[in-house]
Amino acid sequence: MDFLNAIVALANYILVPGIAYGSQLALGALGVTLIYGILRFSNFAHGDTMAFGTMCTILVTWWMQSAGISLGPLPTALLALPFGILGCMALVLFTDRVVYRFYREQKAKPVILVIVSMGVMFIMNGLVRFIIGPKGQKFADGTRYIISARDFKAMTGLSEGLAIRTTQGITLVTAIVVVALLFWFLNRTRTGKSMRAYSDNEDLALLSGINPERVVMYTWLIVAALATIAGTLYGLDKSYKPFVYFQLLLPIFASAIVGGLGNPLGAIAGGFIIAFSEVTITYAWKKILKYLMPEQLEPTGLVQLLSTDYKFAVSFVILLIVLLFRPTGLFAGKSV
Amino acid sequence: MSDLAKNDTLKNLGLFALVGGLIVIVGFVQGWNTAVLIINMGLISAIMAIGVNLQWGFAGLFNVGVMGFVALGGLATVLVAMPPTTEAWTAGGRGVAIALLLGAATIVGAVQVMKRMAPGHKRTIALLAVLVIGFFVYRAVFDPAVEAIERVNPAGTGYLGGLGLPVLIAWPVGGLLAAGAAWLIGKTALGLRSDYLAIATLGIAEIIIAILKNEDWLTRGVKNVVGIPRPVPYEINLQKDPGFVESAANLGFDPVTASTLYVKFGYGLLFLAVLLVVLWLAQMALKSPWGRMMRAIRDNEVAAEAMGKNVTARHLQIFVLGSAVCGIAGAMMTTLDGQLTPGTYQPLRFTFLVWVMVIVGGSGNNFGSVLGAMLIWFLWVEVEPMGLFVMELVTSGMADGSALKAHLIESAAHMRLLTMGIVLLLVLRFWPRGLIPET
Lengths: 336, 439
What we know:
- The structure holds 2 protein chains of 2 kinds.
- Chain A has helices at residues 2-39, 46-67, 77-106, 110-132, 149-156, 166-188, 190-200, 202-207, 212-237, 242-247, 249-259, 264-282, 286-292, 311-325; strands at 145-147, 164-165.
- Chain A is an all-alpha fold.
- Chain A has one domain (2-325): ABC transporter involved in vitamin B12 uptake, BtuC (Orthogonal Bundle).
- Chain A has a two-stranded antiparallel sheet with strand order 1-2.
- In chain A, helix 6 packs antiparallel against helix 9.
- Chain B contains 18 helices and 2 strands.
- Chain B is globular, with a radius of gyration of 25 Å.
- The longest helix of chain B has 33 residues, at 255-287.
- Chain B folds into 2 domains: 3-84 and 161-430, ABC transporter involved in vitamin B12 uptake, BtuC; 85-160.
- In chain B, strands 1-2 form a two-stranded antiparallel ribbon.
- Chain B has helices at 3-30, 32-58, 66-81, 86-116, 121-151, 170-189, 194-214, 216-219, 235-240, 242-250, 255-287, 289-299, 301-306, 311-337, 347-361, 366-395, 403-411, 415-430; strands spanning 225-226, 339-340.
- The model of chain B has no long low-confidence stretch (mean pLDDT 88).
- In chain B, helix 2 (32-58) packs antiparallel against helix 14 and helix 2 packs across helix 16 (366-395).
- The chains are: A mainly alpha, B mainly alpha.
- At the A-B interface, helix 4, helix 11 and helix 14 of A face helix 7, helix 15 and helix 18 of B.
């Protein structure tokens, strides 16, 4: 019984939050890695792109809520998501046309593009604060739990409860669907294949008649969709605050680099690696050890390796270790 | 001097005069107090910008962890200038010291295991064992010591305090602290591709801030350290000094205004002295064979390496130097504020804004960095009132109490980020070499 309780506690505090957070990071890292693969720079504005897309979703959600449109037990935000994606797509296409295209034609060095993306980051950050303000916003509705801790206890008779929030379930399902779609697109469709060809060898792709502007446009569209979905899921699961999205940049980049920049599969693996290390290292293990250890050996402290405030440090240390020992990431990425 | 060079000098002088003029206008419109405040922070920003310019302009290194180095300078101010909390030292000082030594020993041990043992499963297991055991021993010593320190008068001190030395000593110490951190990060991240250095520095800055916020025994965390001793007299003491009041009256100032201006000018002169020294050193470095080598490495690493230059070592050198300059500026800023508030360090303000200064001023040109710092800091401060003014103009036709009007006026405060982004993008697009280009 104690063993079962320990398993349930592990699932409740580590597995479920880790999977949800990992899916969100993976979606974010996919966006970063696609930009890196096709446009060949690290996009510092990605966190703020996520914030912008989520903001569009939130605004439409509020409008729907006031108009009485809802999805019943599911959050209304899911219905508003396509509109948010459209808004985000419009913004990134506009940015690409006005800002990035010039430097692409100049064949500017990647580091110049990174600095340009810094400027874009400022503008997007300013826009978001201008429109929705810097404060936290709530937009989740619908049923809160798929299964609540109390129901679970009643069902199984265990003393430890397992709670799965609706948002966590939605996150996982959406992430699986999106990733499946993305891989189908990249591997099966003509456009997807031309994107991969362009990423592998630009000159060869140009020679075989691939239109680079088209590839770039599709990349931005996909990135906008990924960023908005990742941002909305994160906002539903935790809360929406523009500054938090800016801070997400670090774990997202860590995920993309750990997996190998430019490698979509690596981005997903990296997202889960970073998420699970953050959750396990900052979790107070006392609760689980209590069930597994004999009574006299029970730990007195919380057995928390690091306080939750250091969660950035965790992704950073993993990043450093990977950079030191495998500079191209776990799954061979580019090292241009 | 050729005509062209003369023209350039004239243009540059004109640009500096323009920024000076803008600040004078602020003096007349918003009062001299505000103007001198802008100058003081502008001077500090100029030093930060020179630090970043050393790294980016001279060597092409992309450091987005400026905030971390600035914050380390702030930490130095606390560690040097605050009076020591003797009670806390006796309660847990020794424990913390031993724990930190144990932690360092663990890392040294791990590195030795890495170096001495043959690669394989045995090494991995030994390495993990050293790290895990070391970590738990460290925590076992560290935690009770920290608890003891933080129990000592938590509302007033609850930390170890500093050395009680004059605050000016903290400025070079801040540089040293930042240099140490830069050495560690440079050792690991330099030599990898440029984007990785960016991500690594972004991360180290966040970690430094997290440490300042959470290690209460060191910095009081978010409870802030206030009342850091000053290098200049206190206003209140000046106002009590009859000699000062009399000379102020002779100049036509009331004692309160005179004392605040006197103190601010005092700071300003100190900052100006540091800026001139740093600027002179940076100029000498730029013109020296060393500076030419740096730029050669920046422009073509492969060629420079073929000429026998040790690129990684030179990069490490200038990375440490530039970060040290940022650390000095950070210590100066905390001295000016008189308090260390870890909660206020934000990457947009302390990292990316400094980058805007360098790019706008002209990367690779030290005078450009100074000009860019003054101009951008001026904009950063003044865009908010200007935005408010514009918004009031725009909304003047709207009905009072309408939600849109309230929202627009409230949002004026966020204009500055937008403006900075637009300024940066415009400069990058139309004047990619900045206001004062590299010569």
